[in-house]
Amino acid sequence: MTLEDVSVSNDKMEQVSRALEEVLVSARLHECLTVGVYESAKLMNADPDSVRLCVLAADKEDEDDVALQIHFTLLQAFCRDYDVNIVRLAAVSRLAQLIHEDQSEPRDLHCILVTSPPVQPLQCPALHDVISFCEDSRCRNQWVPRVDLMDR
């Protein structure tokens, strides 16, 4: 890999990060987000065809949480079974800022599903960019790509 390849990769990751932020904000505004591991599992069981993207988020301190890792494994299996794209994040607090979660009321932000109802599909060009990134990652045998959200 040349230095040019690395800079292109960094530029691509910045683009994907911005696109993911745009998707999450747009989905929140259109009420197309399902937040929480339990709520996400319920939706995946009831209506998996409405799910377009699964965002799994965990901070460093969450990496040792065995129960959370088991939930992630089960959600990833659901997503693979129903061809739902998955991305992994390492910044739960930044995610809370993006979707305007009140941090005084703790809420499970470890899993967020972006849905697109069939009657009125979510129209967000950035969603196409994120899905393309996920597909490209799968072609490189990276089934759950990691995206770093930009600090603001």
How would you characterize the overall build of this protein?
The protein is an alpha+beta fold and about 150 residues long. It has helices at about 5-30, 35-45, 65-80, 90-100, 125-140, and strands at about 35, 50-55, 85-90, 110-115. It has a four-stranded mixed beta sheet, sandwiched between helices. Mean pLDDT is about 85; it is low at about 5-10.
List keywords for this structure.
four-stranded mixed β-sheet; 152 residues; globular; alpha+beta; disordered N terminus; single chain
The residue fraction in helices comes out at 40-55%
Q: Choose one word for the global shape.
A: globular
* Cα gyration radius (Å): 15 Å
Low-pLDDT sequence parts? 3-8
Give helix and strand order, one letter per element, not per position. Answer: HEHEHEHEH
**Number of β-strand runs:** 4
H/I helix tally: 5
Class based on secondary structure composition and strand pairing: alpha+beta
Largest β-sheet summary:
4 strands, mixed
Intertermini distance: 30 Å
Strand order of the largest sheet: 1-4-2-3
Subunit organisation of the chains: single chain
What number is the mean pLDDT? 86
Layout of helices and strands:
Elements: H1 3-29, E1 33-35, H2 37-46, E2 51-57, H3 66-81, E3 85-89, H4 92-98, E4 111-115, H5 125-139
Helix pairs in contact: 1-5, 2-3
